[in-house]
Automatic annotation (TrEMBL):
InterPro entries: DUF486. The chain crosses the membrane at residues 36-55, 76-96, 102-121. It holds the Pfam family DMT_6. This is DMT family protein. PANTHER family: DMT FAMILY PROTEIN. Keywords: Membrane, Transmembrane, Transmembrane helix. Coiled coil: none annotated. The keyword Membrane applies. The keyword Transmembrane applies.
């Protein structure tokens, strides 16, 4: 159960982080935001990123082996990276329809998934 909760929190936190990092790139298409300056965009992104931390910190706390979770530190990190790239791919397909996913992007994603696999191999 802790593993599923950890991965769920990672998905939620990475969704907020992706919105904070890349969502503002779509602001130019929204009437209310056309005159916003960089500082305002940064503050809006920080506000969104706060929710990333609200989920990221519990994901790491509940998922970490020394806190009773199922993952060691390396497993947590590579799992987070795989979740992050998954969320980013979904986000870019849904919101940036002009971006094309090419074969090299797929290979990069597969290599990240392989990193997760290798991180979970027992030594």
């Amino acid at each position: 159960m802790r593993a599923l909760l950890t991965v769920f929190f990672l998905f939620v936190s990475n969704t907020f982080m992706t919105l904070a990092w890349y969502g503002h790139l779509k602001f130019k298409e929204m009437e209310w935001s056309k005159s916003l300056g960089l500082i305002t965009i940064i503050l809006i992104s920080w506000g969104i990123a706060l929710f990333e931390y609200i989920f990221q910190v519990p994901a790491n706390k509940y998922g970490f082996k020394e806190n009773g979770g199922p993952f060691n530190l390396m497993q947590l990190k590579v799992t987070q990276e795989a979740v992050s790239i998954t969320v980013f791919l979904i986000f870019s397909i849904l919101f940036f329809k002009t971006e094309k996913i090419a074969w090299n992007h797929i290979v990069a994603f597969v290599l990240i998934i392989l990193a997760v696999f290798f991180a979970f191999i027992k030594k």
